[in-house]
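Hey, sorry to bother you again with one of my protein questions. I've been staring at a protein lately and its backbone has me curious. I owe you a coffee for this, so here goes:
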Amino acid sequence: MAAVTTERTPAAAPAGARPRRRGQAPAWRWAILLIAGLYFLLPLFAALRFAGLKAFGTVFTSPGFVPALWLSVRLAAVTWIVSMALMIPTTVYVHLRMPAMRRLLESVTILPIVIPPVVLIIGVLQVMPLSLRASVWMLGLEYVILAMPFAYRALDAGLRAIDVKTLTEASSSLGGGLLITLWRVLLPNLRTAVLSATILIVAMVLGEFTMASLALKETFPVWIVLFDQLNANISVAASFFALFVTWLFLMMITVIATRQSRRTGGAEVTLFTVAPRETIGN
């Protein structure tokens, strides 16, 4: 008895309907993209028209512009150094020795996002000595707390993408100590995660206003708000400059990290996730 086979044919398209090409996005996606683009670009266009092109030429010679920008850059550098020095060993140790504490550490590191910055800075100003309150580096220590959620999640995503235990045991079997293992084995594999954390930390520091204003420190965002009382056009131009510099800096880090990752067979830089990748040596 011959076997009878049935072959399912695709359903016929409705009459008059044009077949959609493979890879072609539906019209509603383009509509959403257009609406989102207008939502973000229209305020920027209105602010640019209000400031005028002449204001961009005088913003660099405005009083207080260079010191405020230089202070924000120094605070960003200090925040990054302290955050990496604290979070990299802590995250690695938790992954190796105390994996059950990861949920607790995630809950603790999310607190700076939950607690308002006003509460944090007022509490610090009440308990800090007067000598430390007068220093600008106290603000850098506060920024380390604000940067903790971003740094931890970027590093945690990078450690999840590699086999930390196997790499550590292999390094120990070859005679590598803890510092050598961290510097020559783990950090090269965490390069993408570290650069992702850098992107988030720099963007946070260059845009933070509340803590700096309450601590009476004239960072770049504080200078923009204060100078708005004297010349609103220049203040808007300075805001555009800050937006452009931040965007340029973040894009530069992303491009450099992506090129390095492609050379070593790694993943592209993302903000909170790193795709699984092959481990590399140094």
